[in-house]
Amino acid sequence: MVDPLPRFPDGFLVGCSTASYQIEGAVHEDGRGTSIWDTFSHTAGRTLNGDTGDVACDHYHRSAEDLDLLSGLGAGAYRFSIAWPRVQPTGSGGPNTAGLDFYDRLVDGLLARGIVPVPTLFHWDLPQALEDRGGWLSRDTAAYFADYTSHVVTRLGDRVRRWITLNEPVVHMAQGYAYGTHAPGRALLLDALPVAHHQLLAHGLATRALRAAGAAEVMITNNCTPVRPVGEDAGDVTAAAVYDAFHNRLFNDPVLLGSYPDLLTGALGDVVREGDLDIIRTPLDALGINYYNPTAVGAPSGESPLPFELRPIEGYPTTAFGWPVVPAGLTDLLTGSREIYGDALPPVYVTENGCSTDPGLHDQFRIDYLDAHLRAVHDAIAAGVDVRGYFVWSLLDNFEWAEGYSQRFGLVHVDFETLTRTPRDSYHWLRAALTGS
Ligand code: IFM
């Protein structure tokens, strides 16, 4: 038996996050175009067991059931993402009405159940046609993204008030373009840096498009990690500072301060044009932070082409993925952000936090994980950070990118043979915490 959760401020939103390619399936339906993840997952050797998102949770056809699960949970909000290739099959041009209809119904279904919709406009499923023109290495993709955003807000903006532009641009840059472990599978190492700038430019242009359409609240979701040097050696300390610049400050500084971290300004070179940073720092109403674990960093050893090396963090329990469970890292991240950015830090939402466990329904591990991380958020609020909400990753077991269906993050178990949904113990625990029943 765990103690009841502490009381959060009035209006604090608790909900769940998902992403289009990870749950929707229906990849050929209603005019949807091909995304880079369709291409990547259908390329031999790219995902575990050759898994693809072709069917995933079949959410496209089962959204009513999934909305009922959210409602039964007592979720106050639902963060989902919109698949760009459903709206613009080739990434540009007029909108595909049938694709927008799906999200229109989803928003109506949420509002009918009293759940706040929080759409993310880009969670990594870039239209393949845009990748063929250079993807995020091309500056043009930023302008295409603003155009896509306008189509979506024109259709949904009368009912959707809160918007997220991008999800975790650092992960998309690093895994997708630097290491090649995610779509589009480019392994450019440090030459991937322009991807960061073009995504941020896209974020700024989209923020302006959303504001012009009357959006009430606009944010970006960054994946953040407290970075710890493995030792006091100067090499380790420098490597940790560089990694912090790459992972955290490369994406937070420009949107909050209008500048890139000094350590990276040179590396970005002439990709940054005059006026870009003014667009990127278009004021935000909130910052979304996804937190999973801290990162230990040491000086590079051997022949590494990178200026840092990630090291294991010992001494903590680990998730099924092997990620260390460090709830205090979330408090540190939130209070540390407040220290770094001061009044430039807008209200914060924890837009993802969660763990993968074994597939069973009795997931005391997840209950303990969520309980501890919600308390960590509460600690940050008590220390003066304006945190407005917390979203569990994830509602459903889903397609975990290169790991296929092997990592189960859901409050709700999904049988990927029958697509039957079964709430886990953690779902019932969270419902009790949220609704008292
Ligand atoms: O599944 C992902 C999600 O798409 C982005 N944030 C981290 C999650 C767990 O790896």
Characterise this structure:
The protein is of the alpha/beta class. The chain has one domain: Alpha-Beta Barrel (TIM Barrel), CATH 3.20.20.80. The protein is 40% helix and 15% strand. It has an eight-stranded parallel barrel, surrounded by five helices. A three-stranded mixed β-sheet has the order 6-8-9, covered by helices on one side. A two-stranded antiparallel ribbon has the order 12-13. Helix 7 runs parallel beside helix 9 and helix 8 runs antiparallel to helix 9. The model has no long low-confidence stretch (mean pLDDT 97). The structure holds 5-hydroxymethyl-3,4-dihydroxypiperidine (IFM). 5-hydroxymethyl-3,4-dihydroxypiperidine binds next to loops.
Quick structural summary:
The chain is of the alpha/beta class and 437 residues long.
State Rg: 20 Å
Total beta-strand segments: 13
Count of separate DSSP helical elements: 15
Instruction: Tell me the β content.
Output: 5-15%
Strand order of the largest sheet: 1-2-3-4-5-7-10-11
Give the SSE string: EHHHEHHEHHEHHEEHHHEEEHEHEEEH
Provide the residue-averaged pLDDT.
97
CATH topology: TIM Barrel
CATH architecture: Alpha-Beta Barrel
